Amino acid sequence: MSYATSVSDREVGMNDRYFVEGQNRAGTLDNRGTLIFDDDDRLDKQILETYWRCGFYVFERALSSTERDELVSDFEALLDRLPSDRESKVDHQGRPAAGLGFTRPSFRFAKPLSDPHGGSALSGGRYESKMTEPKPPDDAPDEVLLNISGCLQLMDACLRLYGHPQLLRVAETINGPDFTPFTDTIWVKQAGLGPSVAWHQDGTTHWDKPDLDRGTHGFNFMVQLYDTTPENALWVVPGSHDRGKIDIKKRVEENGSDQLPDAVPMLMKAGDVAICNRQVLHGSFANTSAAKRATFVFGFHRRSSVLGVQGWAKNPYDEDYVTTRSRIIPIAVDARSQHFDDEDPYVYVPLRDESHRYSKETRKDAIANYNLNDIGL
Q1: Radius of gyration of the chain (CA)
Q2: What interhelical angle do 328-339 and 165-175 show, nearest 10?
Q3: Could you tell me which residues are beta bridge partners of residue 96?
Q4: CB atoms < 10 A from the CB of 19, how many?
């Protein structure tokens, strides 16, 4: 293993052992395999039971090689048009940067190998404890890309993937046919420079409600564009989604390290898709390895968890708000149908009586700035 930082020999040895042991723990979970449905088009019962036991499940080779390659191609083309820094309106060649026409900034940057969230008040203070921050190489840039938001308006391949019939059937099985969107992001772990994401549980609401259960905050799909390794992967504490709100800071302090002993890496190949419960305790270490990671994350909620709740928007979510945000689903389904015409398109029950077509007009009127109506709990 090669490290791009000035980590000491002792630290390298400790990290190596932790990564190997975590990989071994992950191998005992038996929570990966082919995406399978029963005769009623519901996610296979055994897969569902395993997901609820572990809090995550990896669908191996869920994407065709064609779709995987298109996703990577769109992503790498977008990287070539990144703003040269967080304040810039031009890319590295002086061309107008991507994302300039949208209301919400598309790209977030952070210092190399830093933890930009831990111990802060960001996202309702859910990142309670700061991760270890290795020293960057002397020639490291001042900042690197952390994540990309609003992906459906930036990458056609992401929009088509959002309408994937099998993945939407998974969402229906877990959250009911009236499931609602969450948000979407590509998390980027640049080789040797990628920042960490502090241990956290995604939910910021509902923790003190008597009807809280292991599925209250919904789940995320996690689509890998490249193969992952223990060094650059997301790490998850299996079963923690069913333990309520965890005192993360206390847990890390009692452990004496951010290397939680019961965590496992979510190891995936390019084109694999995982489902990950939003209540599970998870995070990732600074990527000192030579392997990059890019993960397209998009999630869904139960409608009953959303309606009337004061989430991440200015006002409680009502039917009009949810309907507006949900219209991206049938539009994505149609965009996919125009591209992959050999599939049976998914029918989203709440909007089945509305007609939604993907076109230049809908890109301008319905897709642009769709993420201003994201639904976060």
Answers
A1: 20
A2: 150
A3: 90
A4: 20
Check if the beta carbon of residue 303 is closer than 8 Å to that of residue 259.
Answer: no
Question: What confidence tens digit (pLDDT) does each residue in 184-200 have?
Answer: 999 999 999 999 999 99
Q: What's the token pair of residue 213? A: 């259960």
- Half-sphere exposure (Cβ direction) of 275: Cα atoms closer than 13 Å: 34
Contact 4, 137 (CB under 8 A): yes
Mapped onto helix, strand or coil, the DSSP state of residue 374 is coil
> Is 3.40.50.880 the CATH classification of the domain at 9-373?
no
Strand 273-277 relative to strand 219-224, pairing: antiparallel
Rounded CA-CA distance 321/313 in Å is: 10
pLDDT digits (tens, 9 = 90+) for 317-368: 999 999 999 999 999 999 999 999 999 999 999 999 999 999 999 999 999 9
Cα–Cα–Cα angle for 54, 55, 60, nearest 5°?
A: 80
Residue spans of the domains in the chain: they are: 9-373
Q: Return the axis-axis angle of helices 319-326 and 328-339, rounded to nearest 10°.
A: 10
* Pairing assessment for the beta strands 293-301 and 219-224 based on DSSP bridges: antiparallel
Bridge partner list, 297: 185, 222
What is the 8-class DSSP label of residue 260? -
Please enumerate in sequence order all residues whose Cβ is within 8 A of that of 323, keeping only pairs 6 or more positions apart, or say none.
350, 351
Q: Look at the block and give the residue holding tokens 């890109």.
A: 363
Contact indicator for 294, 186 with CB cutoff of 8 Å:
yes
Using alpha carbons, select from 289, 83, 107, 92 the residue that is nearest to residue 194.
289
Strand arrangement of the beta sheet that strand 273-277 belongs to: 32-33, 56-59, 273-277, 219-224, 293-301, 180-189, 144-149, 107-110
**φ, ψ for residue 170 (rounded to 5)?**
-65, -45
Rounded to two decimals, the pTM is 0.95
